[in-house]
Amino acid sequence: MNLQGARITLRLHRFELVAFGLALGGLAVALLIHAAVLANAQPGPECLVVTDAVTPQCEAAFQRFSEAQQGILSIVTTPFLVVVYAIGLFLGVPIVGRELERGTVRLAWSLGPSRWRWYAARVVPILLFVAALTFLAGIASDQFFAASRPGTDMSRSFDGYGARGGLLASRAVFIFAVAVVVGSVIGRALPAVIIAAVVATIGLYGGTEVHHRILAMEAVTIPVDQTGLGAQFGGSGDMYIDQRFVLPDGSLVGWDYFSSNSPYDEFGNPLYPEVSLVIPGERYRFVEGREAVVLASGSLVALLLAGFVVSRRRPG
Amino acid sequence: MAILETHDIGKRYGRRRWALRHVDLAVPDGTVTALVGPNGSGKSTLLKAWVGFERPTEGHLTVDGIDPWKDRAGAIVRIGYVPQAPSLYRELTVEEHVQLAVSLRPRFDPAMARHRLDDLDIPLASRADELSGGQQAQVGLALALGARAPVLLLDEPLASLDPLARREFLHVLVNAVRAEGSTALLSSHVITDIEQACDRLLVLGAGRTLLDLSIAGAIADHAVVATADLVAAPAASGVGSVVGVFPSPTGERLSLVRGDAAAVGGRPATLEEVVLGHLAAARPPRTGAIDPGRAA
Hints:
The complex is a heterodimer. Chain A is built from nine helices and four strands, in the order ααααααααββββα.
């Protein structure tokens, strides 16, 4: 791959690059602006101390903060995640798929002795763009989550797991790699976008399920009242996995253990102590890094597979 | 010496449809050869097989002694290819196409390509989708020539061009090939243009080679035999209807006469008549169309 080839690649995908760059850049800037607004609206440290009574001033501060949080949350965060996932899809498929569909590969592959070289010149610049843009978006999202969780160290918290930081970029790159390989196999842009969306969703969902099972084996138990039960993540920044009951012999059982009767007495009190299975917030960096490495490996395999398809297939 | 060769090559699509079968060809070095045949005769398949875009089902073929499926890179550097449909990037300018070729092909000659485009008044700053069909074909040819390959393969580049554009295209092609001493194989349906530009003729039909000789030889060795249909028009015995080109491609005796017709004369065949005669002979006979037993 040389700079001239990279420049031509960027030129070929100029529309998508500009459109997604502006969309994601705009949303990331909106998140950063809102993070600054939230940081200013945060209740003072005196309000974050757990006491029996909340002062009227703190109550008003919490109210203002909550309103500021809700105002933009639904407007920005959902489109932000949609664009992050769509960017991989809509930039990945055309790299090979559109060229096959339009027949331009016949020119390119007859000019260049190495299809791998052509493929690298097409994929690498777009891959770098997707990775860089979504990584920056992940940082912006990190700032937003930090501002909306006053008093929480986000490097030790599973709040917003997968929607911020480097993991956000890893997921976007994984979708991109899946889209490239589907585009190179299908050879038509629109069907490839649809199929790639399905394959990437299955891949990410399946991966998340597997990861969740691994995490369940690594989870620790904490008393249920320290978990913030009812929320997906504990207020402590732990990742909530599941709820268990501790039998008198010390073994942990789930709800399915009580197939015929309830684990609560007639007054609604649990017959056995309840505990929560959680991944402590201190493990955030490790868990995030591990998933990012697995996704990066999957992406690499998918991109190599797409290269192999390119090197073998008919130009149509 | 042959620079392009096939050895008993066959290409099958699906389970039954053979696009090519038992084709043995040899294109001599330094010639401009026309590859002619009806739709589905396997012309494009053959050219694509030489570029490494199609893998033969049986047999093998070579470009300057190199099998494209064993050493595709080695074969590609010996080939300049002009695909059937315009394959330009519509987002790119002509100049960017030249730069693309430079980035893909190690020894691409951008000055040569630009010079040819300049000669044809094709603006380098124009986007591909702003060019006419003829200009797009010329850009494709300029890129293929800029590759400075010893072999040029052109897959029906004239198909969508008007007569003037066809003439200009062939003029550029022949001049470039003669100047570079390279070999060109051009598939086309437009036989009249071929006659002026090419020096050899290859006719493919029914998936096999029907004719392989020089254009001059093809014209010199064939004659059109005219007949008068004595039953239908006895009074017009001096006005014949063309019924075939002889010598018969299949080696048959004169047997194409309707009813009680008789051969009454002949003249040198045109190239178009040579080609059409061989293609007609390759077609399976229709029931009742010809009765060899009643031939004159």
